[in-house]
Amino acid sequence: MAIDVRSNNVHDRARRAGSGSGCRGERTTRLGLPTSAAYTLDGLLCCRSCGISLQPGLMLGRRAYRGPCGCRLTAVDAEDIEQLVLKAVAGAAPGPVADASPEELRRILRRLFVTVRVGGCAQDLSITWR
């Protein structure tokens, strides 16, 4: 099914996604992207195939990590991948992450991990611990 990108419907959805209106009240920058504090895996998450860092951004109004490399056909949903990584951390060290804010969680994850590599789907991940 083809989508007419000139239609008002597509433009309205893109405008809403760019404005951050679907981002659960997170602070946004002038470009409509949530601040990096909202992305706990920013700088840690990379493509399993080529090793390039995935970049945080919005995809259809939701937080996501995108690969500039082109190995991935779609963005990784940020909430899904962050929950999978948190489950791994909670199994090994539940205390530090229990009530941590997103910024504290970023610092904790950087102390625990070298990289988090993600493959074709969010469940296809490997964590390199320090």
Structure description:
- With 130 residues, this protein is an alpha+beta fold.
- It contains four helices and six strands.
- The strands form two sheets. It has a three-stranded mixed β-sheet with strand order 1-5-6. Strands 2-3-4 form a three-stranded antiparallel β-sheet.
- Strand 2 (55-59) and strand 3 (62-66) form a beta hairpin.
Gist?
This protein is an alpha+beta fold. Helix content is 32%, strand content 20%.
For the largest beta-sheet, the strand count, sense and barrel status come to: 3 strands, mixed
Q: Describe the strand arrangement of the main beta sheet, using strand numbers.
A: 1-5-6
Indicate the percent of residues in helices: 25-40%
End-to-end gap: 47 Å
Backbone structural class: alpha+beta
Radius of gyration: 16 Å
Q: H/E element string?
A: HEEEEHHHEE
Beta strand %: 15-25%
Number of strands: 6
- Global geometry: globular
